[in-house]
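pls design
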């Protein structure tokens, strides 16, 4: 069985990502792209489904860290006979992908285990493997269909029972470097990377990028690590931002709530963009906007809620029966059937992020605004239709309150584009629709008897998405309606100090089973507390949440409070972007509170003369 989710770290080259465990095993890697088939899939099966292990052969202790503000992972293994250090990194390269693994003897002598098991097609296809030589470099190649993987190093493992294995000793002062490289199978074996230069340059580039972070408020270290993680999940060439690096890590262990998150949700990508913009990153906004223009180009009626990394639209969901699933959680799915859903909130999130980009000085191109105007005009014709909601409910379509509020947001930000930035559009019509939507939400999405907004128009219960209403400008954070909603969410959705998305037993999602607290929701509650002026509560909850990242600062989608372990796909963009949002909201609230105290003191001082 694979390790606990929290025992993994992520490597990335802004093209794809790998998960490497504390035992030194790369158990998940899709090549050449986030949404490509995996060549190492032990995470969702067993070692026979592919992995690359370099770690101590016997009992050991492991400590890990990322080197500075980078995604270069340093693992230190201590055994009874010595200590070794392994540095894992994925340097950025053109038309190829590399994982570089450097072993350095620190003290004594350690016996190491090396296993290279390539299984293409999500752990199913056994490739044709051969040993060879390029110049004086010995190598092993594994080829099947469009893929070629090349293993190089000073001592190559030997073939046995469909895998390549070896054991060797490394002593203090010794160093060994191995690399696995992907190229298209029709291409020649590429030259060996200059490891020292690439390792140094990759770390330096990440440090320079992290230094551009303008956020100087509380919890800055966690914010920077989250931003680095979000950068790893952004395709550096296309600009597509994936929701997670994995598929089918379960929301309920042994259950069926297993989804493929290796795609670009417009909502998640927009929220990621907001986090980056809040911290001063404008170039990423331009890159993503260009991706958006390509992805959604065409008839606004054909807008999807998600796309492939390159903007592709065919994300047909299917099941992989040859994989046993993480913790026997089946089915294992690739593709995502939610691609065909109607989620009315999505355009609101897109319009927020693009308005933020305008406010921060990103020039609006004619094509970009024309696209936005077309999408908003299309929304004007269909805004009152029910949808599947933010949580991709697979039950009946409903008028979800959060979705209706985000319709209001879409019109509101379109109006701002005209009024603040001089762009053209039918602003009178948009104003009239914005007011109609607001009136409808206050009439049908608010329950005066319970003093709370509701999950949907036919419900009396809540869901956690209602916490974002102040953040998007629909209502003040300290409005009595919002305070009542916060209390209802605390009463109905809190589990061991963390929030659920909604109560699954309501049957609203049409699925069997349960799930664990969804980390983004608790970060939303931090933001809601901050905007309500409850700063001490916000800090208390933020402190609790920042005890949850693993030893290298990463978060999954959910947290099992009973067994104290991660659940769901990993690392999860939604968790990290809401962490950033919570910190920014707290910093803003503290600044506002300090200004108010200062003004109050000045008035009192003036009155005493």
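designed seq:
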């Amino acid at each position: 069985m694979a390790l606990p989710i929290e025992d993994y770290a992520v490597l990335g080259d802004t093209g794809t990502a790998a998960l490497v465990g504390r035992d030194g095993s790369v158990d998940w890697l899709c090549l050449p792209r986030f949404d490509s088939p995996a060549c190492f899939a032990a995470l969702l099966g067993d070692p026979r489904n592919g992995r690359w292990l370099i770690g101590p052969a016997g009992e050991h202790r492991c400590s890990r860290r990322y080197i500075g503000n980078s995604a270069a992972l340093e693992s230190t293994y201590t055994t009874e006979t010595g200590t070794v250090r392994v540095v894992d990194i994925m340097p950025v390269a053109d038309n190829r992908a590399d994982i570089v693994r450097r072993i350095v003897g620190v003290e004594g002598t350690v016996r190491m285990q090396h296993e290279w098991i390539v299984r293409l097609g999500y752990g199913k296809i056994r490739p044709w493997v051969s040993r060879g030589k390029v110049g004086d470099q010995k190598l092993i190649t594994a080829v099947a269909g469009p893929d070629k993987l090349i293993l190089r190093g000073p001592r190559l493992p030997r073939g046995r029972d469909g895998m390549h294995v070896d054991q060797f000793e490394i002593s203090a002062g010794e160093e060994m470097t191995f690399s696995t490289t992907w190229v298209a199978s029709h291409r020649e074996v590429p030259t060996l990377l200059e490891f020292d230069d690439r390792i140094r340059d990759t770390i330096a580039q990440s440090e320079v990028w992290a230094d551009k972070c303008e956020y100087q408020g509380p919890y800055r270290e966690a914010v920077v690590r989250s931003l680095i993680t979000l950068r790893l999940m952004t395709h550096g060439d296309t600009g597509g931002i994936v929701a997670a690096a994995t598929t089918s890590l379960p929301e309920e262990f042994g259950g069926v709530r297993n989804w493929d998150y290796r795609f670009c949700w417009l909502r998640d990508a927009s929220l990621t963009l907001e986090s980056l913009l809040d911290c001063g990153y404008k170039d990423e906004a331009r890159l993503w906007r260009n991706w958006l223009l390509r992805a959604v180009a065409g008839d606004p009626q054909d807008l999807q809620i998600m796309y492939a990394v390159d903007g592709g639209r065919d994300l047909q969901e299917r099941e992989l029966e040859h994989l046993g699933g993480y913790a026997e959680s089946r089915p294992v799915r690739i593709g995502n059937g939610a691609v065909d859903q109607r989620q009315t909130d999505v355009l609101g999130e897109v319009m927020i992020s693009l308005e933020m980009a305008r406010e921060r000085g990103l020039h609006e191109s004619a094509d970009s605004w024309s696209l936005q105007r077309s999408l908003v005009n299309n929304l004007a014709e269909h805004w009152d239709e029910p949808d599947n909601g933010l949580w991709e409910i697979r039950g009946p379509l409903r008028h979800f309150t959060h979705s209706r509020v985000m319709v209001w947001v879409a019109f509101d930000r379109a109006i701002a584009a005209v009024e603040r930035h001089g762009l053209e559009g039918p602003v009178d019509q948009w104003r009239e629709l914005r007011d109609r939507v607001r009136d409808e939400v206050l009439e049908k999405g608010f329950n005066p008897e319970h003093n709370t907004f509701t999950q949907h128009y036919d419900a009396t219960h809540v869901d956690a998405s209602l916490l974002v209403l102040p953040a998007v400008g629909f209502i003040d954070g300290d409005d009595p309606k919002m305070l009542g909603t916060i209390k209802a969410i605390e009463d109905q959705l809190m589990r061991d100090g963390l929030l659920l998305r909604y109560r699954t037993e309501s049957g609203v999602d049409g699925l069997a089973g349960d799930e664990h607290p969804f980390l983004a929701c608790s970060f939303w509650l931090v933001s809601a507390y901050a905007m309500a002026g409850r700063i001490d509560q916000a800090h208390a909850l933020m402190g609790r949440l920042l005890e949850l990242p693993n030893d290298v600062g990463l978060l999954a989608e959910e947290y099992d409070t009973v067994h104290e372990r991660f659940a769901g796909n990993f690392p999860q963009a939604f968790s990290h972007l809401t962490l950033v949002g919570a910190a920014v909201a707290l910093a803003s609230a503290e600044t506002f509170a300090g200004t108010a105290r200062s003004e109050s003191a000045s008035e009192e001082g003036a009155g005493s003369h």
